[in-house]
Design brief:
The chain is an alpha/beta fold. The chain folds into 2 domains: 216 residues, Spore Coat Polysaccharide Biosynthesis Protein SpsA, Chain A (Alpha-Beta Complex), CATH 3.90.550.10; 93 residues, no CATH class. Helices cover 38% and strands 20% of the residues. The chain is built from 11 helices and 13 strands. Strands 1, 2, 3, 4, 5, 6, 11, 12 and 13 form a 9-stranded mixed sheet that branches. Helix 6 packs parallel to helix 7. The longest helix is centred in the last third of the chain and has 21 residues.
């Protein structure tokens, strides 16, 4: 199997200077590409002048994470796509365990390495940690990270195990399944589009795994900080999109109703904390969801009647009420 490591870049010249050398050095099993999302800085000329071995794909517009990758991947012939953030430092032999799983397991379509914090290298990083799950109401969490609690890595997640979603910060996916599942949904623009894609991949009968023998280090928040109101907008809107698209017909409207109530509770919390811009973005996210309801609803297809996707019924209840702040303590 041939492999393409594809880094999506937007005005990230400094990140490329810092992290591209490790990718080149430790990714001998793959061809390395940088897909530039119409950057206004000197990213492209910098790559051409300093890393001639890197293949450059120049997108004509900044279509966000989803469209940027779809445009970039559409012209590639490799069997495996590795989506890699520009702020990730890879480690020696990071690709070997990931590619071995994809080679040995025909029904496994996606594999994620352990994602550790670049600044605290013995702790898991927010965006993916050791593999992701969702609860019944669409809230994502990870082995090694629940809400803002990050676990220290002491080998507790070194096993290769099935997960529900793999992080877009670093994941390997079989090309055939990427396109069979319909690729990343460009209506998401950015954030949680990889969870939506993984959900559709599950609906097709494939598996997603975390590789405990591979690890990378992620800066996180280099493009958009977690507390940026724009990210709040995408997370709230895209969660509703994801639930509407993928929940079985018998559950979709009931769960959406409860999720909207929980969003309201989050809005009250933001109000109490004086984060008025975040409260406003929740209102904007719900408004965008209502406007695009029909468009998103028409994307529903191939949904099993009784999927068993949820690691826990309510991660909010487990975390805030039962004080279960580590993945191993969840039921």
């Amino acid at each position: 199997m041939t492999t393409a490591v594809v880094i999506l870049n937007w005005n990230g010249r400094n990140l490329l200077e810092q992290f591209l050398p490790s990718v080149i050095r430790y990714s001998k099993e793959a061809r390395v590409y940088v897909a530039d999302n119409a950057s206004s800085d000197d990213s492209v000329s910098f790559i051409k002048g300093n890393f001639p071995e890197v293949n450059i794909i120049e997108n004509k517009e900044n279509g966000g994470f989803a469209k940027g990758y779809n445009l970039a991947l559409s012209g590639l012939q490799e069997d495996i796509f590795v989506l890699l953030n520009s702020d990730v430092q890879v480690t020696k032999d990071w690709l070997k365990p990931v590619l071995q799983i994809l080679k040995d397991e025909p029904k496994t379509a996606v594999v994620q390495p352990k994602i550790l914090d670049f600044k605290r290298k013995d702790y898991f990083e927010y965006a993916g940690a050791a593999g992701g799950f969702i609860d019944k109401y669409g809230y994502p969490f990870c082995r090694g990270r629940i809400f803002e609690t990050l676990e220290k890595d002491h080998g507790q997640y070194n096993q290769d195990v099935p997960i529900f979603w793999a992080s877009g910060a670093c994941l390997a996916i079989k090309k055939s399944v990427y396109w069979e599942a319909g690729a990343l949904d460009e209506d998401f623009f950015a954030h949680q589009e990889e969870i939506d894609l993984c959900w559709r991949i599950h609906n097709l009968g494939y598996h997603i795994k975390s590789s405990g023998l591979s690890s990378v280090h992620h800066v996180g928040g280099a493009t958009l900080d977690r507390m940026n109101p724009r990210k709040t907008f995408f997370n709230f809107r895209n969660s509703l999109y994801m639930l509407l698209k993928n929940l079985p017909a018998t559950h979709v409207f009931g769960i959406l109703f409860i999720r909207m109530i929980l969003d309201g509770v989050a809005g009250i919390k933001f109000l109490a904390e004086g984060k008025f811009s975040h409260l406003y973005t929740i209102l904007q996210a719900h408004s965008a969801f209502y406007r695009n309801f029909k468009k998103i609803y028409l994307k529903r297809k191939g949904i099993p009647k009784n999927p068993k996707y949820f690691q826990t019924k309510s991660i909010i209840w487990s975390y805030f009420c039962l004080k279960r702040k580590e993945f191993s303590k969840l039921k």
